[in-house]
TrEMBL record:
It is found in: Membrane. Pfam families: Tetraspanin (PF00335). The lineage of its organism: Eukaryota, Metazoa, Chordata, Craniata, Vertebrata. PANTHER family: TETRASPANIN, TETRASPANIN-3. Coiled coil: none annotated. Regulates the proliferation and migration of oligodendrocytes, a process essential for normal myelination and repair. It is a multi-pass membrane protein. Keywords: Glycoprotein, Membrane, Transmembrane, Transmembrane helix. Interacts with claudin-11/CLDN11 and integrins. This is Tetraspanin. One of its GO terms (cellular component) is plasma membrane. The chain crosses the membrane at residues 30-55, 62-86, 187-214. Its main location: membrane.
Length: 232
């Protein structure tokens, strides 16, 4: 279950990145998601080893189980650190790229950057970089010469909205830059909290494995019982 949850979180980050990837250029932001998917896959293997070691009462298996848990724990700590590092970089990345993306807008349903802008404006209920007036400075606005912004800026409860700036009340009033930054930071926090939660679980698992190993090494009666049962 833990492996499945971690893989789901990593996949969710990838899918969301695909929707917002035009707004930041640093692909290394995905490193925490890649690592957490790898950890999820490794957790599945750990679960199998742990079950087999417990059933067979194997000291070697339990030691291997504890060692792998330690490796996973360290990896999850690295994910937390990377998550905080890249979360701090999100705002700078978006600020650096968003103006360029808006300048490349060429109309609804044309190229990928244009579709990304329309998607973000609809999903986040925003318009422009800081507000809808930012569209006046874009190449698309100047070339279209119709004094309108994309219809993706229209509020859904407004009928017959064409995006015209003569009716600004029909448009979303908030800019997209701050909302994109907020959304990406929230996604990175999902990764951080997931890594912290499962790191705590790994710590508990390591402690349990170590306790079992210590009890076996200091309990001659238990060893004798296991040996007798083996010969029987």
């Amino acid at each position: 279950a833990a492996a499945g949850i971690l893989c789901y979180i990593g996949a969710y980050v990838f899918i969301t990145y695909d929707d917002y990837d035009h707004f930041f250029e640093d692909v290394y932001t995905l490193i925490p998601a890649v690592v957490i998917i790898a950890v999820g896959t490794l957790l599945f293997i750990i679960g199998v080893i742990g079950c087999c070691a417990t059933i067979r009462e194997s000291s070697c298996g339990l030691a291997t189980f504890a060692a792998i848990l330690l490796l996973v724990f360290v990896t999850e700590c690295v994910v937390v650190v990377l998550g905080y590092i890249y979360r701090a970089k999100v705002e700078d990345e978006v600020n650096h790229s968003i103006q360029k993306v808006y300048n490349e807008y060429s109309g609804p349903n044309t190229d990928a950057p244009s579709r990304a802008i329309d998607y973000v404006q609809r999903q986040l209920h925003c318009c422009g970089i800081h507000n809808y007036s930012d569209w006046r400075n874009t190449r698309w606005f100047k070339e279209s010469k119709n004094n309108s912004v994309p219809v993706s800026c229209c509020q859904p409860n407004i009928n017959n909205c064409t995006g015209t700036l003569t009716r600004p009340a029909d448009l979303y009033q908030e800019g997209c830059e701050a909302l994109v930054v907020k959304k990406l930071k929230e996604i990175m926090m999902y990764v951080i909290w997931a890594a912290l939660t499962f790191a705590s679980i790994q710590m508990l698992g390591m402690l349990c494995a170590c306790v079992v190993l210590c009890r076996r090494s200091h309990d001659p009666a238990y060893e004798l019982l296991v040996t007798t049962n083996s010969y029987a």
